[in-house]
Amino acid sequence: MNLPKYSFGMGDRFAHQGRAQLAAVVKARELGVEVAPVWNKSNREHLIVGSHPESMRQEADSAVRALGWTGPYFVDADHIGLKTVDRFLEPSDFFTIDVADFIGKPAPEADIDAFVAAQARFHGKLNVPGIDRPLLASPRGLAAIGRKYLAAVQEAGRIYRHIAAAKGVGNFVAEVSMDETDEPQTPVDLLFILAALAAEKVPLQTIAPKFTGRFNKGVDYVGDAAQFEREFSDDIAVIAFAIGEFGLPADLKLSVHSGSDKFSIYAPIRRTLRRTGAGLHLKTAGTTWLEELIGLAAAGGSALSTVKEIYRQALEHIDALCGPYAAVIDIDRRMLPSIGAVADWSGEQFVAALRHDQRSPSYNPHLRQLLHVAYKIAARMGDRYYAAVEKHEAIIAGNVTANLFERHLKPLFITADSDT
For 355-418, where are the alpha helices, taking DSSP H only? Predict the structure, then answer.
């Protein structure tokens, strides 16, 4: 099973927007860009919402039938490990193998020694085509990489083999995720992580490293976009080199996680893809849930009241909601509007505060991040929330499609550099 050159992960907290999401991919295809949709949802999200992995397969298949989609599509078991993967085995054909928790854990010293010895031919200065400076690899440096990453790679091998035993080799896409950690991986780190994955016989088709900067949920990239562009370009060069050196799959590509709404790095990504001819997997998540809230706020009446109630409860339970996401949100609580102020907002005011339009003086990234992690409240509302979403499906769907196409797919894959 091969992942196409461009693929786009689409999270949907409540599994209601599959057709609207796919419609954005259809619009990209109509403009000549083939992007494979990948519906993704993590075990944590399933547990919070009370859903099951089969619901994502049902949503994807239903959307594909409804829109007559004939291209490849996938259902991603997002951020799974050995303890959580089994419930995803049947419905999923894409597995994000998350081993970030194993980074820094000790591997056996004998394994580290073997890892260093296996890379002896790279000791010294290493010239990688596409990188304008030599990479440096020494026995001491390789040992440090092994001590930091080898246990994580070995865990990825165990998870991959567990999936392959159930589904069969070649019947799923494997991604390895190392992005949810404290420090970014350098190009040298990435090169020898890939060497170790090849030695573990993990035929990964995409890898998600951690880049420099902040990839906070639902808001723009925080960091130096020029530095990101250099890192992204270097990592693509490393992947191309590793494919030839280590026999990894020819379609191996970079994955950008928490990629939704990172508008300031979309042009750098697009330029690099066009210059190199490389592929990309970019994963979005809660942006669709926020578009549901925007659609409900715009609808007014009881739907707007529901959104205001979600915000009220989010503000009252901010610590519990934000705790699990502390590493990927930055909320200045002084910038959050009071419950009383929001109670008096019109639908237009709520939409202006929540919609990710950085040109708008009303846009509030702190409110947006809080609501991004507040989907648990909507889940607890149950039928009240679902009924509102179904009643206002048309306005919500329009927002979902426009958001994914105009703000994500178009600037990533379509817009000309001269337009930026």
Answer: 365-372, 375-381, 383-391, 393-402
Question: CA–CA separation, 415 vs 420, rounded Å?
Answer: 8
Indicate if 304 and 377 belong to the same structural domain.
yes
**Residue 416: predicted pLDDT:** 60
Q: Say if 202 falls within a structural domain.
A: yes
**Cα(48)–Cα(25) distance, rounded to whole angstroms?**
28
Domain identity same for 136 and 65: yes
Where does residue 306 rank: exposed (0-12), middle (13-18), buried (19+ CB within 10 A)?
Answer: buried
Over residues 156-207, the pLDDT tens digits come to: 999 999 999 999 999 999 999 999 888 999 999 999 999 999 999 999 999 9
Domain count along the chain: 2
pLDDT at residue 420 in the model: 46
Region at 365 (left for phi over 0; alpha for psi -120 to 50; beta for the rest):
alpha
Asked if residue 1 belongs to a domain, the reply is: no
Q: Which residue has the tokens 């998870």?
A: 159
First-residue to last-residue Cα distance in the chain:
36
Q: What are phi and psi of 5, to 5 degrees?
A: -55, -45
Amino acid 180: pLDDT: 85
**Cross-strand bridge partners of residue 42:** 78
Residue 44's pLDDT is 93
149/293 same-domain check: no
**Contact present, 396 and 291 (Cβ < 8 Å):** yes
Assigned domain for 378 exists: yes
Over residues 57-61, mean pLDDT: 98
Q: Tokens for 420?
A: 């930026």
| Same-domain pairing of 152 and 13 | yes
pLDDT in tens, 241-290: 999 999 999 999 999 999 999 999 999 999 999 999 999 999 998 999 99
Gap between the Cα atoms of 350 and 345, Å rounded? 6
- Are both 171 and 203 inside the same structural domain? yes
Range of the domain at 389: 289-400
Does residue 146 share a domain with residue 20? yes
Radius of gyration of the chain (CA): 22
Q: What is the CATH number of the domain that holds 45?
A: 3.20.20.70
